Amino acid sequence: MTPTMKNPESVYYPASTKENYGGSAIPVPISSVGKPERNLYVKQVLDWVSLQLAFTMMITVYAYANKSSVIEYINKNPGSVWFPIILSFITLIGMHMSKSSTIKKTMFVLFTISMSMMVAVSVLSYAPDIVCKATVTTFVMVFAINRYSKRCAETGKNLDRMAEIGGSMLLVLIVMGIMQIFIKSSLLGFVICFLGVGVFTILLVVDLHLLYSKEDNFQEDPMLAAVGIYLDIINLFLYLLELYKKLDEK
Q: Which of 8, 129, 154, 234 is the most exposed place for a label (fewest CB within 10 A)?
């Protein structure tokens, strides 16, 4: 008779192909078959995300440390601001459409470079203390969100409702952002910042939960899964930056 697994951790992190029950070695329950491969997939995704964030941080720190020269270059070459934006869309489409592993990795690297440049330019307008607070807050939130999402996956908690709410809030955020272009309201700006932090917190919870709870369809390209999580974290950081800036002005 196949034994019942005692805790979720043994499903998600099987140390070996056998377990000891009462001193005798017996096969791991059938529910654990294939889990090491899925765990490897999860590790690959998180490794790609970590590399993206590390590279983005290096580019941003370098640009911020040379703020004067970077701003001077941008003023002399205003078209340079649009280049990474266009490149990010092209490479993102290329990643999803390409069947070649080599091309996909190339698109992934170029996408990360373009996003890092965009983040670096965005950060230049913020004071050092605001950048530090946003960075620390993002780190703490991502750590907590990761733990929560992992726990939800281990306990089998369904987050479909949260995913629906996050998607709806994202649409509202986009509409409000368009309205703000024309209205330019300080109050609406605050609302957008708070909503943005909330939206990408929810989306990060959902994306990490999907990563940890994958079963039959976990063969999705790890680079594509990494891009979604990376974008959630970057957007969360940028909205925290703007939120701290507005609170500091008050």
A: 129
Q: Which two tokens stand for residue 195?
A: 């909503």
Mean pLDDT for 144-158 is 94
In angstroms, rounded to a whole number, what is the distance separating the alpha carbons of residues 243 and 226?
26
* Residue 1 CA: distances (Å) to CA of 8, 10, 23, 149, 225: 20, 18, 17, 33, 38
- Single-letter amino acid code for the residue at 58: M
Nearest Cα residue to 121 out of 186, 67, 198: 67
Quote the pLDDT of residue 218: 60
Compute the distance between CA of residue 14 and CA of residue 139 in angstroms, rounded to an integer: 28
The tokens for 132 are 């530090």
Distance CA(86)–CA(153), nearest Å, equals 36
